[in-house]
Prior knowledge:
By secondary structure, the protein is α/β, with parallel strands linked by helices. Among the domains are: 2-177, Uracil-DNA Glycosylase, subunit E (3-Layer(aba) Sandwich), CATH 3.40.470; 189-388, Ribonuclease H-like superfamily/Ribonuclease H (Nucleotidyltransferase, domain 5), CATH 3.30.420.10. 44% of the residues lie in helices and 15% in strands. The chain is built from 22 helices and 23 strands. The strands form six sheets. A seven-stranded mixed β-sheet has the order 1-2-4-3-9-11-10. It has a six-stranded mixed β-sheet with strand order 12-15-14-13-16-17, with helices on both faces. Helix 2 crosses helix 8. The radius of gyration is 29 Å and the shape is flat.
Amino acid sequence: MTTPYEEGDPSAKICILAEAPARTEMRLGKPMVGPSGQLLEQCMHSAKMVRRECYLLNVFERPVTKGKDGKSCRDGDGDILWTQKGGLTLKGQEASKGCRQRLSKSSAHVVVPLGGTALSFAFGDDRIMKWRGSILQGTDMVSRRKIVPTVHPAACLRGQYLWRHLLMSDLERAKKESETPDLNLPKRDLLIDPTFAEVRDYLTGCMKQERVAFDIEVLNHQVSCISFAVSPELCMSIPFVHKNAADQWDLQEEELIWLLIAQILGDPTIMKIGQNLIFDISFLTQQMNIHTKGPIGDTMIAHHIMYPDFPKGLDFLCSMHTREPYYKDDGKLWRKPWGNLEMFWRYNAKDSATAFELWNVFEPLLEEDGFMQCYQDTVAMFPSLIYMMVRGFPVDTSKLEETKEEVDKKLKEKENALAEAADYPFNPSSPKQCQEYFYVYKGIKPYISRSTGRPTTDDKAMSRILRRFHLKEAKLVQEIRALSKLQGTYLEVAFDKDSRIRCSYNPRGATTGRLSSSKTIFGTGLNMQNLHPDFKGFMVARQEVE
């Protein structure tokens, strides 16, 4: 049967679920044949899926219109069918009744929702970029079948060219999952809330391994738990804070646990695997004086080297290279009334287990694609960067304070000068107020940004206004902005107690692969990429005896 909202055999093993037919579909009497449908078919072909072997459905039988913010949709009469926060409305449930009936008769092993609305119908949650690629259990709406959500092809047509790769990847996963109706998620033995004897024995066993994955969780600037995985299936989370907010171990037990951890991390023969390990290693070095040695298997760096344009969070990596459903919200939800510390410990353990699995995927890919040398060169920077993070660099605080006073004085002078020069007061830091003053009140033709295509009052625009119209206000706006930048970004930087600045460094923090820096989790430091020339004068070079 073929209608604008249904096509194919209900006995097909894969059901593609879209939102609603568009005008093209209504005119041709066939679903998913417009530009989005054509792109979908291209991606299906790349995923070795055949359209005629799939069952195609729309949640709604008639065209819908999206709200301007994309957070709701309405029918032709203007009735709201779906909202982002509330899901299907009563009208929406009525409008989707036909889809629900057709799905109940379908024998599909896998349902593939395209976009947030279809995902909300099938799963009860519309957060498509969180859940896409995950293998999920559907709600009663889809008779508890497997769900593999993916992005809507229309999103790929709106400039998100990289999403085509996500769409193809998710369709490949759906095809593979269609072979069986069983969920069969990864089996992971996550050991949480262990006794001291269990911790001791497990860590002793880790010392005999050729590679281990580990991950720390930090709460209130302290290690709240640390996990070690000896395989993708077996991992233990070792907590240091218990359910009653008391310490988990007595002093002797905790001392021995940390000594065992230090032995594992300090063993140069054991490979250490993890996600963004430079954070974990530097934190343990700074706070616990534990030094990590041996080869490093960093999943974030490996993925970024091979796929620099894609996100590099562990959730995204899992969605592309493992069968582990999205779980990263568990790191926050344990604080909710329904949450608990066991949820947090399982989250900690799963981070290590999935990192181990990912490294098993990435390691041969690095070799096959010729990126292993690049990866090794990157992780070779770890010791130097960690030393910089731990040591920091001294700053002449007295000179800095003097400069702050001078800048404050100059800034007030420039602000007073602008108040006198301008026909009426406006905020030079406000693009909107600057546009109103120069482009509306002064009648100057707006300068358009090449990157955004919108009017701008950036530094180049102010320079042009000054050059063409000789307006003193434009020069003063530039000077005030420069002083404000110096004051807020570089002179108000937070120091550690020893008058040193410490930053977090990411060896591949930019898409181009260059080093980046940022504040630490303690709120000190600054972004060092674009260090102001004036700030360099505050940095002190000392010959110190260590």
